[in-house]
Amino acid sequence: MSRIAAAVHVVTTDGPAGRMGATVSAVCSVSDDPASVLVCVNRSSRVHAAILENKVFCINTLATAHEDISDVFAGRGNLGMDERFQRTAWTPLATGCPALEDALLSVDCDVHSITEMGSHSVIIGTVADLRMNEPGGSLLYVRRGYHALHG
């Protein structure tokens, strides 16, 4: 799987289970009507339980300058969740989920369905809000390292 190149995202959630976030690469658009996306999240992660309880999530697509944010939300540095969010600026979107202010794209979603596969859940969300910033280079992850895609 490490040879499959993927864009890097931080999935966030907020609500009764609290504010959480994690770095993910398994994200995909599902449908235009209704607008929907999916994210695959490890069931043993804290963010998984929080998304299920909060019933909302936001996909934040990272730019090439966000390697440090990716690392922090991947757990490198062993920072607490509040410390992770304090590393950069966030704005709540329609569902209340934190959107990274300078993300290339933030897709705010209500949970529509959840399917379990192996160690992960495939969580499909319907789009409640969307924010795009100026185009820039995308952060990719392949062969256990970061790479830049300039567009």
Automatic annotation (TrEMBL):
Domain Flavin reductase like residue range list: 1-148
Keywords: Oxidoreductase
InterPro entries in the cross-refs: Flavin_Rdtase-like_dom, NADH-dep_flavin_reductase, Split_barrel_FMN-bd
Pfam families to which the protein is assigned, alphabetical: Flavin_Reduct
SMART domains per record: Flavin_Reduct
Domain of life from the UniProt record: Bacteria
Official protein name in the record: Flavin reductase
Species name: Roseibium polysiphoniae
